[in-house]
Amino acid sequence: MKLPNEEEIKKEISRGQKSLKSAKKLFEEGLLEDAISRSYYAVLHAAKAVLLSENVTVSSHEAVKRLFGMHLIKIGKIELKYSKILSEEQDERYLADYDVAFSPEPDRVEERIKAAEDFCDAMIGYLKKSGIESI
Prior knowledge:
mainly alpha; 75% helix; Four Helix Bundle (Hemerythrin (Met), subunit A); single chain
């Protein structure tokens, strides 16, 4: 069964995978704030893809977080820990992009990237269970 938004869902996942790959490369280069930012965008795009699979479209970062909780977490479709990852990634991205005094430790950045990878893998798994096989 093909979902109505399947092509857009695939594009969101692809964009998220590219962001995750960028986060890892930026981390390797020591560009820690940028790695955190890309890590967040990996999570954001994966969350948007899953929301699209529920026929929910979003237009802002805050809406992604709010609607992800409302449509997926509260009703038990996705584990609570993924809502926490989304929120933490968003908070860290804000610091990395806008707080010039923010200087994250490499361990902290590596933790964010691992959390983003876990999030993306879980969302891809959810989408495959929803009938989107070729992700």
